[in-house]
């Protein structure tokens, strides 16, 4: 479904390649990308989300270049920084995401109600992000990414800092989202609690050079 072909990226011409000739096909299902901090997990996720342009290689969707409106209509992204609009309520954040994704008002209303309820946010819908805990904001951000039911869902450390019960809810939601077999979820994570819902685990430690200060521990 989503294919990386020879992806290369580095932060400056004198720096080492964070990614170098990375090639992989992500089929429908849940994929975990693991590895030590700084190994390129988040960089790859941002490239697949069109937030960074690869310096080598390219990304394809269904065997073709990423569509021009891919980021708005076919892809959902959950950042580590969350990036909820601070002056808008949680409900309004979701409404805007639905509108940008081309979701009709009737369908958007249905989807917003469903995901607010499913993620335990229905009583918080009229609050602004600053009035929510970090965990509540994380769940709201996941709800926002799911509203348009994208073909590709990219998540960067979505359960970081969450307790076991809320992590279980997110695992259930992601499993339900991919149950029909036509959605692709790619998660960068250090969280071993997600292993049991994954169809594939990519360990970047296995094929990328380890940072010098960690080499003595290997």
Outline, from the CA principal axes? globular
Q: Give the % helix.
A: 25-40%
Structural class, from helix and strand content? alpha/beta
| pLDDT averaged residue by residue | 91
Number of strands: 9
Radius of gyration: 18 Å
* Helical run tally: 7
Estimated share of beta-strand residues: 15-25%
Strand arrangement across the biggest beta sheet:
6-7-8-3-9
Any low-confidence stretches, pLDDT <50, length ≥5?
A: none
Task: Determine the oligomeric state from the structure.
Answer: single chain
Largest sheet: 5 strands, parallel
Span between termini: 35 Å
H/E element order: EEEHEEHEHHHEHEEH
Q: What topology emerges from the helices and strands here?
A:
Layout lengths: L1 E8 L9 E8 L2 E6 L6 H8 L7 E6 L2 E2 L4 H4 L1 E4 L11 H11 L4 H14 L15 H13 L5 E5 L7 H15 L5 E5 L11 E4 L8 H4 L3
Parallel strand pairs: 3-8, 3-9, 6-7, 7-8
Antiparallel strand pairs: 1-2, 1-4, 4-5
Helix pairs in contact: 3-4, 3-5
Overview of the structural elements:
The chain is of the alpha/beta class and 218 residues long. 32% of the residues lie in helices and 22% in strands. β7, α6 and β8 form a beta-alpha-beta unit. α3 (90-100) crosses α4 (105-118) and α3 packs parallel to α5. The chain is globular, with a radius of gyration of 18 Å. It starts with a strand and ends with a helix.
Features of the shown structure:
218 residues; alpha/beta; four-stranded antiparallel β-sheet; 7 helices; globular
């Amino acid at each position: 479904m989503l294919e990386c072909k020879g992806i290369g990226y580095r932060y400056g011409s004198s720096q080492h390649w964070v990614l170098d000739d990375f090639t992989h096909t992500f089929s429908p299902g849940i994929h975990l990308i693991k590895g030590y901090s700084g190994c390129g997990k988040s960089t790859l996720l941002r490239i697949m989300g069109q937030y960074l342009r690869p310096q080598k290689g390219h990304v394809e969707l269904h065997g073709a270049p990423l569509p021009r409106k891919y980021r708005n209509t076919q892809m959902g992204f959950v950042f580590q920084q969350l990036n909820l609009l601070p002056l808008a309520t949680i409900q309004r954040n979701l409404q805007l995401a639905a509108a940008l994704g081309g979701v009709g008002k009737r369908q958007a209303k249905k989807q917003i109600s469903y995901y607010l309820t499913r993620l335990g946010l229905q009583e918080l819908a009229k609050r602004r992000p600053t009035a929510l805990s970090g965990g509540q904001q994380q769940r709201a951000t996941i709800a926002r990414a799911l509203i348009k039911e994208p073909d590709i869902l990219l998540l960067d450390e979505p359960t970081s800092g969450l307790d076991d019960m809320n992590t279980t809810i997110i695992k259930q939601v992601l499993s339900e989202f991919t149950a029909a077999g036509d959605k692709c979820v790619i998660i960068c994570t250090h969280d071993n609690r997600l292993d049991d819902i994954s169809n594939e685990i990519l360990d970047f430690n296995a094929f990328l050079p380890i940072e010098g200060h960690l080499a003595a521990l290997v």
